[in-house]
Sequence to fold (178 residues):
Amino acid sequence: MIVGKKVRLRAIERSDIPTFVRWFNDREVTRYLNRHEPMSMAEEERWFERQVEHPDGIIYAIETMDGIHIGNIGLHGINWKNRSATLGIIIGEKDYWGQGYGSDAIRTLLSVAFEEMNLNRVELVAFDFNARAIRCYEKCGFTVEGREREVLFREGKYHDQLRMSILQREFSRANPGQ
Fold:
């Protein structure tokens, strides 16, 4: 396991699939994702098999120090030549929102990305109405690089998508000894 201050990151397991399906069928959770259709158990099982057979990155379950599975985090589309990847995170257990678990998981994964994998850049996207996530990303050292206008239609209106990134040297400066 990879241990942070508040969370542990562990490999995802087949036994986690029902939890994933529950999260991805909760409109309050998926409101902040680029996903709107319900998810079946079969669909998530196929996704899991693809991750095992042909991963496009790394995905970890986020657990509290008490072993409660509260979310997932990963690096996707790893580009080894350019030393970059895209970060994705979900805290599916709403009782754990806004308590620092997400930012600890991000810092813990960034430490692996920059100090173990020797990546230079990690990027992500966030919708403009997800103020809590944007604050979290900025607290972790991400910088807004750009805005893609009206890319998501949700709840009757269009929303912008922010593109954010952090570089290895920025992470090292912001998190000495992480």
The beta strands are 2-3, 7-11, 57-64, 69-79, 84-91, 121-127, 143-154, 157-167. The two ends are 16 Å apart (CA to CA). The chain has a mean pLDDT of 94. The chain is about 30% helix and 35% strand.
